[in-house]
Amino acid sequence: MVSSQLLGGAYCDCFVHLVARGKRFEEGAIRYFPQKRNKPDLTKHLLAGKETMSTRTKIIDTPPKIIVKKELNLLLINGSPRGERSLSRQLASSFIDSWRTKSIAGSIIERDVGRNPPPFVTEDWIAAAFTPADERTDRMNEVLTYSNEAIAELREADIMVLATPMHNYGLPAATKAWVDQVIRVNETFSFDLDRGDFPIEPILQGKRMVLLTSAGEFGFEQSGIRAGKNHLHPHVETIAHYLGVSRSWSASIEYQEFGDKRFEESKARAFSKLPTIVEKIRSSYMEKTKGEGRDRAK
Ligand SMILES: Cc1cc2nc3c(=O)[nH]c(=O)nc-3n(C[C@H](O)[C@H](O)[C@H](O)COP(=O)(O)O)c2cc1C
């Protein structure tokens, strides 16, 4: 596996694969070898024993400050009830293509809530969620099945891609239903009155979110003519905190209902942002590994 990373202006294209005592080291790790007249003796870097190694290394002048050794798991939530014609789905699919192009290790899981809407929260659901796990009946556990699965997917995700249409100026009901299933007491948030007026705290943290949207009208940006009608982006921004999101990016298509040149331009702008967002996410993990360590419990 080849990993190409841009680090502080120095380009390092390394291919390091170590096998030592049956243990497989992470591939694609970036190693720094200071410039020497002769090629560096890479074998010094191996553990003693029966190591084997293949490597292709460009020598770089300055040491990278960061070493990225992390698998990034991606969770895609598709919220459109439409299929191939859905613009938010097309954005998501283009984003995933860019993601794959970068050969970033990790899983990609899709929850298609648009075509398979989650169950709504009911009185039974609330009773089950607020009952301590070891006191739940079989029926209660059954009611929480979807929620448990969706939360497990969210917990494992480093990156969450939320692709959704604007419906009636906000989230489509199915996407909102997913949100209601995953934002759950003692699972994704804790509640403690000792915290005073702000008793709710997220349990998850450090995730990255990409919000990909499509709307029929236009002018929903902060200074836009319909900014006051945008209950989609501000809502997702508020919710994101409770999903454990610490950084987010977005790309939006507008003018779908007009179908004119402005629509074509809006589409082109949104699609062209996606590779940059992928790169920014990758860089954000480089920064992160510098000081913060892993953001999810192993
Ligand atoms: C039920 C429904 C409600 C909609 N409400 C809005 C709206 O409030 N504002 C808007 O700009 N477009 C609205 N639209 C248009 C959609 O946002 C637009 O068609 C968008 O491209 C849909 O996303 P998709 O292509 O991913 O399905 C609505 C469409 C539907 C079907």
Question: Could you characterize the architecture of this molecule?
Answer:
It is built from 7 helices and 11 strands. With 298 residues, the protein is an alpha/beta fold. The protein folds into 2 domains: 3-56, no CATH class; 74-291, 3-Layer(aba) Sandwich (Rossmann fold). The strands form 3 sheets. A 5-stranded parallel sheet has the order 6-5-7-10-11, with helices on both faces. Strands 1, 2, 3 and 4 form a 4-stranded antiparallel sheet that branches. Strands 8-9 form a two-stranded antiparallel sheet. A hairpin with a 2-residue loop joins β2 and β3 (23-24). α1 (87-101) packs across α7 (261-291). The longest helix has 31 residues, at 261-291. The radius of gyration is 23 Å and the shape is globular. Mean pLDDT is 80; it is low at 1-60, 63-69 and 288-298. It binds flavin mononucleotide. Flavin mononucleotide is lined by residues 80, 82, 86-89, 165-169, 214-217, 256. The site of flavin mononucleotide has 16 residues, from α1. Belongs to the azoreductase type 1 family. Its cofactor is FMN. Homodimer. InterPro entries: Flavodoxin_fold, Flavoprotein-like_sf, FMN-dep_NADH:Q_OxRdtase_AzoR1, NADH:quinone_OxRdtase_FMN_depd. FMN binds at residues 80, 86-88.
